[in-house]
Amino acid sequence: xxxxxxxxxxxxxxxxxxxxxxxxxxxxxxxxxxxxxxxxxxxxxxxxxxxxxxxxxxxxxxxxxxxxxxxxxxxxxxxxxxxxxxxxxxxxxxxxxxxxxxxxxxxxxxxxxxxxxxxxxxxxxxxxxxxxxxxxxxxxxxxxxxxxxxxxxxxxxx
Length: 158
Fold this sequence. Notes:
DNA-binding; LytTR family DNA-binding domain-containing protein; 3-stranded antiparallel sheet; CATH 2.40.50.1020; alpha+beta; elongated; DNA binding; 20% helix
């Protein structure tokens, strides 16, 4: 089966169209998968995400998830920090939160998910704010709501 993508600025939502001479088992399987994705794909979300596609200055590439230091939201877009570059990705943080390996990635705020393997230091200041320092020099604010989650993950890794 050939697969292609066509971008259209006129599209309001994605449309999947299968063109075939007949309705074969391969077509039925593809239709079933697409129908599941468009309705309730929660049962598919337990499959860990190993690779993710991203765009950096109009250049698209597939990135290994393990090399991403963190994901974050900015201006209603989602970015992956990879090799000190911010790649735009087409998944929401909520989707990433469910698809990423929970042993490796942890939510630290409503707008960020960090790679625990990239964590160098967890800082707290006298004002009561927290930050995660990552191996690429990035500093990510940790919301007080998520501090106990990070602390328990750090303790469990000792």
